Amino acid sequence: MAMKKKPVTGMKDILPREMEIRDYAIGLIKETYKTFGFTSVETPAVEHIENLSSNQGGENEKLIFKVMKRGDKLTAAASKLVEAGADRDAIGGLSDSGLRYDLTLPLSRYYSNNANDLPSPFKALQMGNVWRADKPQRGRFRQFMQCDIDILGEQSIIAEIELILATTTLLGKLDFKNFTIRINDRRILKAMAAYSGFAEEDYDTVFIILDKMDKIGLDGVKEELLKEGYAADKVEKYLGLYEKLVGGDAEGASVVAASEKANVSIENIKLVKDTLGDFLDDEVSENLSTIISSVEGAKAADFGISFDPTLVRGMSYYTGPIFEISMDEYGGSVGGGGRYDEMIGKFTGQPTPAVGFSIGFERIVMLLLESNFQVPGTGERKAYLIEKNMPADKMQKIMALAKEERDKGVIVNVSIMKKNKKFQKEKMQEEGYTEFVEFFADRDF
Amino acid sequence: MAMKKKPVTGMKDILPREMEIRDYAIGLIKETYKTFGFTSVETPAVEHIENLSSNQGGENEKLIFKVMKRGDKLTAAASKLVEAGADRDAIGGLSDSGLRYDLTLPLSRYYSNNANDLPSPFKALQMGNVWRADKPQRGRFRQFMQCDIDILGEQSIIAEIELILATTTLLGKLDFKNFTIRINDRRILKAMAAYSGFAEEDYDTVFIILDKMDKIGLDGVKEELLKEGYAADKVEKYLGLYEKLVGGDAEGASVVAASEKANVSIENIKLVKDTLGDFLDDEVSENLSTIISSVEGAKAADFGISFDPTLVRGMSYYTGPIFEISMDEYGGSVGGGGRYDEMIGKFTGQPTPAVGFSIGFERIVMLLLESNFQVPGTGERKAYLIEKNMPADKMQKIMALAKEERDKGVIVNVSIMKKNKKFQKEKMQEEGYTEFVEFFADRDF
User: Fold this and answer.
1) Which residues of B touch A14 (CB under 8 A)?
2) Rounded alpha-carbon distances, angstroms, from residue A32 to A37, A121, A365, A368, B412
3) What's the pLDDT tens digit per position in B325-343?
4) Closest to B297 (Cβ–Cβ): which among A2, A286, A399?
5) What value of ipTM does the predicted structure carry?
6) I want to staple A148 with a disulfide (CB 3.0 to 4.6 A). Which of A264, A358, B102, B104 is the partner?
């Protein structure tokens, strides 16, 4: 029988050392988010193919692991394929569902299905695997855990503040320091583009280019916008705004000391509002300032929060504030989110305000693994080594002894004494067993 | 846009109340099993279709959710299907993988892939979802959580004893009482059939009929065996054995008081051995007695362990002791397992002893839900109700107050005060919030 030993392409077996960190992180996440009033929810890994392909998922919709129909429906779809030839639609007809590629779409479906049984506002915590048939590459897997918190049904910025505080409190408990929450608002992005004279249908293209600011700088963005064919005066005006705010430094406010970031940011937001005038609602800039000052005043970890007018966030479903966690140690984002007030309405027909924050669980676990993170409080570990062929009465006594210690929380590993006892002990020491108790059949204990 | 609100057929959205119990059970399982030296492992949800279809999965192989190939491979498979017509092989060719239907097969693959990085013996804890395209029915879902502990590389009955003690300790912590661990050995099953004159190729059929003992009784089993065409003298001899052991009572030793079960069982095992003589190795009966007395002597919960010669366990991969948890409250099995020394050899080419015990996680959660189980120690729950349009400086103060309490482990839910405050509070009381603190924009706090 030819059995395959390796996992399927792009997915991985998780070894005990990593699992220890994952279990610890999962426990801490649940514990921390619960103090903020979040409750766990779960949706199936398999979703309707119609929902997965509804244009809410952006690029991810190209990466779906599709699940085949079964039984008569599969036979019918296959016959249809034979008749029609192997065209796209006929191939698509073979599948009725797929593995979820994120937790946001399933949550929207969940909420619209269960809203009557849920509190309002509803604070949801979701931890679960998602699947994307991405090109396999180092450190990136086709099955990975996502960890999302969402507040549904809350129109006010309480939602944004709570999400950012919950997430940063968690990161602090995981010993992360010196990170930055970058924050912006889709409406500021749009107002800045409108003020500069760009037409609404150009926004998406402009934002995709703007998003490269941290890589290619102001000059690079300018060059690409011009290359795209936008009028020089619009481009000049647009970049002038950014120059004023980030001072020609692509990193923007992040060069300022963490404690100063909030103040600088609030000044910058005022500057934006003063410049944009009627292009931007007062409420948008005021809310953003309040989010920043509230987070700054109640933060439970060593981090900065700063307004970053270059922050775009890919997904087009965002409607208000957007945010991202930048971590120098990782050299990139380890999480992000924002307000998406229109997605749930797609299911229910009536708009429901919603804000979400997702942490990059896999990246965080990787950083902890690489920094040789020690899970705290794993307790005492004892190994009982027992001689082979121990008589029943003595075996009973050994198991009773083990029970007593286990009841106290001691980890007791009972195993048969090997011929090479020295080697056996060395191996167990590597696993963290510090104490060894030996039992022999012909001795009393 | 036509979005579907319900989950896919046979799968379910899990509501907060159930999730609270699930999270609690998951935490307790990890904590308890860890004191026995088990370490968590995880395998991908998606497995090679070749492995899933390798005849290790019995009936489950008919219930696989198959995942379609992607890109060029899918196009090629579809073209082939068009050429060949919609026959079984061509349809099969569309898929390269599937969702795992249990955790045992993936664990065998995992062990053969990673044995060099794992301790020996290896004590694995797996909690994860599995998928089976079963006919949807009440209380039975197409995605469900399994929770398995396995000891790989341990030849001695230490493995069986540890697994049974770990599982029963867990059930005790979950407040289950009065359950019974039924235990048997595949080699006793076989020896009893051999002694009665059945040929080896008939064992599987005979055991399938024997397995119905608790439903149809001794007479029913006799009738079905005769109907199957087995010689009357064999059937008489076979049922005579069972009559001697279970005294014509299909429930067998389980009518005895829990504390007496172990002693009665050890007597019964002696009786079996004396009757079967050379048909049964001394070691088999001695080991079974030692397992029973060791578990009885170190048990951490209120349960009985009893030898049940009618216990069969479906899967043909079992090679030694087999066991099952019977729970009166549920009227059926809530878990089981056994020794399967030959499965891992299918991957590696060299046999590796293995024993596993799986608890019926979903059934246990259902029983806890139905008994209105209260998760202990969920802590104090406070609701902060804040007036709309709170100024930034006051908002900052509120969030800082919440932080102080959350740091102490208090659950603080901050939300906007609604117009119908009375109703809002009533709803929150239903969620367990006992204390309400109100904040107004024009008052000091």
Assistant:
1) 41-43
2) 9, 19, 17, 18, 11
3) 998 767 778 999 999 998 8
4) A399
5) 0.92
6) A358
